[in-house]
Amino acid sequence: MDQLRIVVGFKVTPDYEALRASDWARAAAGGRPETRYVRRVFSVFDEAALELALRLRDARAERGLETSLAAFSVAGREADPFLRTLQALGFARAARVDPGTDLDFAPSATATLVAAGAERLGGDVLLLGSSSGPGDSGVVPFLVAEALGRPCLTQVTELQSIDDGRLHVTFAADTGPVRATLAPPCVLAVGNALVSMLRVPTLRERLMVKDELIAELSSAELGVDLAGVLAGEPAALAGLETIDRSRAGAVIAGTTAADKARALYETHLRARLERL
Known about the structure:
Layout: E1 3-10, E2 12-14, H1 21-27, E3 40-42, H2 44-62, E4 66-74, H3 80-89, E5 93-97, H4 107-121, E6 125-129, H5 140-148, E7 152-161, E8 167-173, E9 176-182, E10 186-190, H6 203-208, E11 215-217, H7 226-231, H8 257-275
Parallel strand pairs: 1-4, 1-6, 4-5, 5-11, 6-10, 7-10
Antiparallel strand pairs: 2-3, 7-8, 8-9
Helix pairs in contact: 4-5
């Protein structure tokens, strides 16, 4: 294989950790929290997939092998800054499809659009995050692989290229890390990769691609009947609420460390140790 074509599908999500308690209180009444003012971030596994693609390209370039990179997102204009960053990093093709509706809890519809987008971009290897919040169903990569008729490996942690076009893929299994040799085309779902942070482009790299276009596709252009797919989703979102992760605490009084240790033992540990 003279050239390896890699497509990475990614998702940008609101930073739910930045929401206030009052936002979640309103969401618990049956709606969703307001996220328009919250910054957008890469899904953590998608970010790892993007960096793995860049590292694979760099490793192949050192051996004189050509690699083309493309990035694709099911999103509206909120994904454009992320796509421009990826263009600056060397993703020659950048595209998105705006579904016009929220697909956070619609894995079948999301997978249908991702599969159609990957076919349009013509990738030999499709890299996806193993799950993307919110929702985190974890089924999208498998549904995409089924739609494309490709084998799928999940929980991928490392990628290495062989000169004949095949890939050494390391993934996490129940028994521990496993290394497999895989020939494209394939779908790889990235999990807890050894490298999880995306590199940052320089100002010069950004300026070099400032006039590059981002392809804006529609579901109709991709041949997807989105309304029909959404009608077949097995579940619908009823509401969102936050999980209370607060913990009780106590201040141990004392003037010295020894006094505090003695007080901790007498008030909290003695009774527990006596019950052992």
